[in-house]
Structure formats: structure tokens, C-alpha cells
Sequence to fold (131 residues):
Amino acid sequence: MAITVWSATESKVMVDQTVIEGLQSIEYKVSRSRADIIAVGQPLRQGVEYGVKVVNGKLSVKSCCPALDEKLSNANMAQAKFTLQAQLKKGEQQKTATFQECYLDDRDFTMDVNGVGIATYTFTATDLQES
Fold:
């Protein structure tokens, strides 16, 4: 199976239906809680049991993202919720990662003497669908 290297210049990420301008990076991690199944008197585990699926991610944007800033400052949970969609492309090939029921945890801002300001938004999602 051939590996597809996604192009950052051809790809885009959207908050609800708004494209994030100045996006520098997107990172995400999907993990599941896991517990070992053990038996008394046995030195090896007998199996594993999987639990909750957790989706966490980060978006780094030049200066700021007004759509995300609005979500972060909103105290109403229904209005703070959003869908994030990453459309990854390379030529004719495309993959879409849709993060459902997202909420922002925080925003960090950094600026060094040689660059521009970068806002990093940390989010959680209920689920991730890839197609």
C-alpha cells in the first residue's frame, strides 16, 4: 500500500463552515482507556478491556482566529460547541477528518523577536470520523 503525504498548502481546516485563516498546524491524538484482565495466581494478563475513547487536539494559528476566540469566550455551552473539519489533500487524493462536538479548553499566545504571534488553541472532541 502506497503512503500518501498530505500537502499543507492544499489542505484546509474549518470551524463549523469557516476556514481558519493563517493556520500553521493541527495536531490530534485519539486514545482509549485500557485495563488489564488478570487472574489470581497467573503471572500474565488474561486479556484487556477497553473503555472511553478520548480525542484531544491543538490548532496553531498566526495571530488569532476570531471564530475560535468567540467560542472560547462564550459561557453558553450550546454556543461554545463546534465541529472541526480537516480536509487533507494531495493532488486528487483527499481525506476528511471530522471532529464532532468540540469544546475549547484554552488558548496560549506566543511571540518571539524574530517571528509573528502564534495562538495555540487546545480542544477536545466527542468523536473523530475519518473518510
Q: What stands out?
A: Residues 7-130 form a domain with the Pnp Oxidase; Chain A fold (CATH 2.30.110.20).
